[in-house]
Amino acid sequence: MIYMPKLILVTGNGRNIGKTTLVEALIKLLSSQTKVYGSKVVKLGESKGSFHGDHSNLSNGRGGNQIDDLIYDTKTRLVDSIIEENMECPSKDTARMVIAGAEKAWFIQSSETELEKVITLWIRQSEPDGIVVCESAILRSCLIPGVMVAIKQSAPWENLKDWGLPFTLANVVIEKSVEMPDYIRWAEKIINQFDHL
What we know:
The protein is α/β, with parallel strands linked by helices. It has helices at 19-31, 49-52, 93-100, 115-126, 183-193, and strands at residues 2-12, 36-43, 72-73, 78-79, 81-84, 105-110, 131-136, 143-153, 172-176.
């Protein structure tokens, strides 16, 4: 397991429940005090443009700064990728992170079996020297963040997904109902609660 004490991980058990909105709020507040970076980590093959924003313009390395030496998955014929946001499409989640105040943001895709290798490579080559705010449903399987925030949506909700990890791993659990929580207020609470950030 990788330990990143300066990483805030935002995760949850549904789509369209406000994870990116909370990430933006955290970045906006933190960037006024310190260097902050953003990242989005998804399972290889799950980069659905309707949910994460279309990253196809970055996938060939010409649209963004792609880190080399990535792992090739012989089963799926897809390549794990680490791509720095280039701001060509401002609606993407990683572009929204930069707009909120992140120095840089990366979109990372990985198979679950290679995730720890890919994250280790990203840390080594990108060397983020501040707080990293990351949105991911899979990252906790190989990494222990400084703070983990989980947004828990209860049924009925059409975009619930099997998160696969217990909510007891989270330092903060936000219970979401039909209405969207006040994520600016939650971001303030999270930053104030954890003095190591």
